[in-house]
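Quick question: what would this complex look like in 3D?
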Amino acid sequence: MEWFFPALCGLVTGILSSWGVGGGTLLLLCMTLFFGVEQRTAQAINLLYFLPTAGISLLAHRKNGYLDRTVLRAAVPLGTLCALAAAFLATTLDSSLLRKPFGLFLLYAGASILLEKPENKNKAL
Amino acid sequence: MQPPSGGRYIPSGKAGCSMTEKGKYRIAGALAGTVNGLFGGGGGVPLVFLLRTWANVPDKTALATCVAVIFPFCLASLLVYALCGALPLREALPYLFGGLVGGWIGGKLFKNVPNTWLKRIFALFLLYGAARYLL
């Protein structure tokens, strides 16, 4: 049983994220709110979880020509440095300090989905 | 469907805009990296938003490219966790196993999904999470 709920949670998240509905944050919240996983551990599990699922979908995206190399070349180097620094902060700071900022982030993410206009089909075509 | 034309998008009606598109991508990347590193995920939320609305990248390209941008961020963050001895490999296994099966099932069931409603339910769940963290 110790395995059952985490695996089920991973399964549901995997289905939803393959449909483009929020994957990572969903898993993170289930772990911290329902399974009592400590915040930092949940974050690490979330990061680990992302790699294989994202890796598989990236292969398909590349094949379909949806990856924009200009964006990648501009966004990845600086972003990776920021990610390293931020992850260092996240592992060294007392994790209770990050509770409020994370709450605000969730508020923003939830509100932005609710307020989002329907997908602009013209843009994608 | 028109393929991305060499990866460049000319924003319409933005003549005289002071920042180059590359500058926008950099800022979006930096913000996404910071969020992703701090919270162990979620960097895609500001990234997709900024790419779509600020840098005028088409929806599908923004979503797909976002995954490719976040990938190295997650690797970098995990490296830091590993160096700090905070990599819970054993605890992650059931989630990973469920995730792989779920991704496979999701791929099989794709199409015919009422995406808008699922997204709204997900958004409400995020707001519930926000309340639990903030209050």
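Answer marked as accepted. The two ends of chain A are 47 Å apart (CA to CA).
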